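Q: Sequence in, structure out?
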Amino acid sequence: MAHEIALKYGCNPNQKPARIFMEGGELPLKVLCGRPGYINFLDALNSWQLVSEMKKALGLPSAASFKHVSPAGAAVGLPLTDVLRKIYFVPEGEELSPLACAYARARGADRMSSFGDFIALSDPCDLATAKLIAREVSDGVIAPGYAPDALEVLMAKRKGAYNIIEIDPEYVPAEIERKMCFGITFEQGRNALEIREELLSNPVTRNAMLTPEQKRDLIVALIALKYTQSNSVCYAKDGQVIGVGAGQQSRIHCTRLAGNKADIWHLRQHEKVLRLPFRPDLKRPDRDNCIDVYISDECDDVLNPSAWPNYFTERPEPLSAEEKRAYLDQVTGVALGSDAFFPFGDNIERAHKSGVTCIAQPGGSIRDDNVIQTCDKYGITMVFTGIRLFHH
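A: Exactly. Output:
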């Protein structure tokens, strides 16, 4: 371990000099391969906190896919269905470890946003996980260790320049943290609040029931929010994030953005999408982009006579607005977390359209009664956690 690591530059090429360092002692990490940059390290350290906390809270291997200091996806290591294998581009029959399942789910939450991501793994990286990472466009990975065969696979990525960071899992940061803005130092207590099931014990709606699966998904959403740039809202299902709305000034815009991403995640499983006749030479990122456009209102951009031969072996039928709405109307069992209170019931109306059946939020708005009434209208269970999760 070193005391400091010099960086090529800071957030932007004109911001020099740049480094990461410890004021006392050695850094709790080492770079095994590559040359991570300033933003890479911000993504690595924030995402490591997320996955280590999720592993501690739920007892399952966890993974996160970070872009610009917010998660594009995060998940625990539950097995993949055949449909999820297909939409995550995992070959049928390929053996996956629980950690590999966690990574596939984290990467698959929002594959467009995860392009060029930084990956965090709660457990030492195994060969199955390394093989999945090797196929994706990614900037780097942080983990508490690497199996020798997994490290060999990762070190071959990007012609040997792939960023690989090993972190000491026993490291505990100081209770007080500092940062600077405009030459002025800010100081605060580190957000060491643990997200646990006890935070879900204050239901405020007529429907007060939460299944074990709903509790798990609400914990996934809340832990993801703890490391997401605020304002933020997170949708989760089946142990994984499926939509994050980050850094918005308006809470309803957070809810809409995250809900739209959750809808896209669901629509990628529509039978018309699963049957899209892609050209065999079409690269994976191009398939992801094509699917997103096909699902969107701009589907003609990939279906018009001059465009479709670039993507498909034959022109597929469009997915109509009526078909999309009918499919999404069947979605249920989605969990939603918010890093601060909902000020209006319109957030609940939008969440309901994406199949939300349970919500965790701090509470404390002067319009809590209206928000609760809107939940009651749809039979949604809502709990007040009493904690805010702003992150900047």
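The mean pLDDT is 96.
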